[in-house]
């Protein structure tokens, strides 16, 4: 009986925390757009993500504060996290997106094309986090008096197959025109459940991951929020309101 009671308490506690995560995610995305029209980018998402976690009862031990060092961005009791932001593809709206990852010029470039075993080892050696925390947006459309953005928050284990470069077969990408015709310009992979990876030498050999939201990946959506991104006030107005309330108290 005691064991069953403890299990129920754990489930109940997890349900409460999940509710808090969803609630604080919605509050943060809508709060951000009270004063900002532009979508939430990766640097802002790290700050918001840390706030959501701390307000939901998780400890945030450290943040990268927008630093450009690859790897972990947030160390928390909810896990070690790499923050990413993306936009849903216009051609497959609401079902696929692309995220950028490591620059790999030390192991593959136009001067030294490298080998898959080497850059896969390099990618995985930098993966010092447990989860990708990805904010994906769908700019639903705009009218004269209304603009909406839908945000999805995905929390995907970093060892998920479609995010593992060693799960794919890598092949050289050859140039098709101009001075690069028939010259290797990067690397690309096969598809796994609609997902794939690529490296383009002309883009600092940056790794790009194309993610297709299969049913399996949709289970990692923690929360969603649809917001009106027309600002309700600006920074000056916010400052004046804050000082007015402060003086009253």
UniProtKB/TrEMBL annotation:
Protein name, per record: Uncharacterized protein
């Amino acid at each position: 009986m005691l064991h069953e009671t403890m299990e129920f308490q754990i489930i109940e506690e997890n349900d409460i925390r999940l509710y808090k995560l969803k609630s604080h995610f919605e509050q943060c995305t809508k709060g951000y757009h009270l004063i900002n029209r532009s979508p939430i980018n990766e640097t802002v998402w790290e700050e918001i993500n840390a706030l959501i976690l701390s307000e939901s009862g998780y400890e945030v031990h450290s943040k990268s504060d927008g630093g450009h060092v690859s790897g972990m961005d947030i160390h928390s009791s909810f896990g070690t996290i790499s923050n990413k932001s993306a936009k849903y593809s216009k051609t497959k709206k609401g079902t696929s997106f692309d995220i950028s990852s490591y620059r790999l010029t030390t192991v593959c470039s136009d001067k030294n094309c490298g080998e898959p075993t080497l850059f896969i080892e390099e990618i995985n050696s930098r993966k010092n986090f447990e989860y990708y925390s990805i904010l994906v947006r769908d700019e639903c459309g705009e009218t004269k008096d209304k603009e909406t953005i839908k945000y999805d928050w995905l929390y995907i284990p970093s060892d998920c197959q479609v995010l593992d470069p060693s799960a794919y077969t890598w092949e050289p990408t050859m140039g098709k025109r101009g001075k690069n015709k028939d010259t290797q310009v990067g690397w690309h992979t096969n598809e796994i459940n609609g997902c794939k990876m690529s490296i383009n030498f002309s883009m600092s050999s940056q790794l790009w991951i194309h993610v297709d939201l299969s049913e399996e990946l949709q289970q990692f959506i923690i929360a969603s929020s649809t917001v009106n991104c027309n600002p309700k006030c600006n920074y000056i107005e916010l400052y004046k309101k804050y000082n007015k309330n402060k003086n009253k108290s």
